[in-house]
Amino acid sequence: MNPSSLKSRFATRFLRALTQIHARKPICPSSPTEIFRRYRRIKAAADKSMAYSVRSRRTWTGAVLWKLRSRSCGRRSVKTSTLVKSQQAIEKKTRHEKQNKNTTTTTGGHGVGFGVEATASELRELVPGGEAMDYCNLLDETAHYIKCLTTQVKVMKKIADFYSL
Amino acid sequence: MESNAGTKETRSNLTASDGGEVTAFESLQFTDEIHRLILAPTTDNSSSFTALLELPPPQAVELLHSPDSPKLIAASPPNVEDFQGSFRFPSNSGLIERDARFSLFSGEANNSNEKRNSPESKNVSANPEKNVKSEPAETESSQPLVSDPTVEKRSIKRKDRENKVKGSTKKSKTVANENSEDAEKLPYVHVRARRGQATDSHSLAERARREKINARMKLLQELVPGCNKISGTALVLDEIINHVQSLQRQVEFLSMRLAAVNPRIDFNLDSVFTSESGSLMDSNFPSLVMPAIWPEVQGNGHRQQYQHQWHLDTLQQPVWGREEVCNNYITPENSLLTYDSSANSATLQANHLKMEL
Questions:
Q1: What global pTM score does this model have?
Q2: Alpha carbon B13 to chain centroid, angstroms
């Protein structure tokens, strides 16, 4: 295994996070609520470690990390004024860019049918941070995102298979 | 008539070059022929134009599609100036729009070729005019200069151009856009380098953009399994969306599995990882030995409990079925086997896990 590949970087980070999560000793470790809580944490850890393991800074990694941070901050209800302001700024930015997107042509000039716009918007919802991107960059981000998702799935599958046997 | 002879010669030139590529030399000959065509009957402007028109449609199309045709433009502007008066059609914009309408829904080049030939041949002469009109800032002397970078850009773009059999709908579209400031989006427009319009920065940028998008779509097709056979952008996009959704769902299910797993060992795997990074194989090494020693002694009672209580509908059944099966299988073994020291098993497990990864 290449020690500096995306796979190994993600695996290291993710396993570290897993140990941290499993190290917490709740009262009844196998209750459904506890498992659900752990599931949320593990999923967040997986996304986070994937976002950090990526070498080249991508738009979707920033969006993933921002979502996680805002979600965790919201849950603890410790909304600092800076965080709120930054959230508002980002929302304004995405709204502004959405307006831009509507007036200018995103897939336009590409001359593809209008049905593609609908699928493109669906893709935007799927890929984190996809709302504020033009079509060309969106395809780029999607390719990278798919590659990272496949590595994530592979590593997690191997870990899960390993520990569930 | 000399013009007829000229046309015959151009025809022979075209047929000679039809098989292979139009070399520069042949295009020079070609331009000479056109020169002769244009210059010969200077008194009778209309007849020279009709001589041009009388080129049979395939040759007219060839004329348009020849990659070195900008040289024609480069050569002809001085002559076009002479003709501007006579070439001015009252219904130029009408022609262009009719052409645009013809070529609107053309899925194949063949279908629209016949329709387009007659307006196209008229567009041949209209084009240089359009060029002149659309670039009012440029003086006549600078026009050949403008055409030359066009040629260079064209030669560069030629490498990027994928499909040669494309209609010239894009040409008429850009002309219509320039004329009538019409920003309507056509359902599907073929990409085609338009001679005379290549100097327009908009179409160049658009073409480059489109090629970038196509290249990225190809990349995506390779990434997504089973996408190579599908043709058509919309279906490929659907496939991509499905793939992304399935991957995201898989991550969710796997994290659920990992949450349900109850490792009793403190696995300080990162230290093990860093130390043993050199000697690892990336293979599907089946972990045969370790699972038997998996200590589930404590968790067994709890596990039985939650297996009955677990009511999540969103989970995949096979995943949980497997969990149950494994747990049931391990229980009797665990009661028999003793639990080694945690450090030993941790390192052994870490090794196996690393080999698997």
A1: 0.48
A2: 34
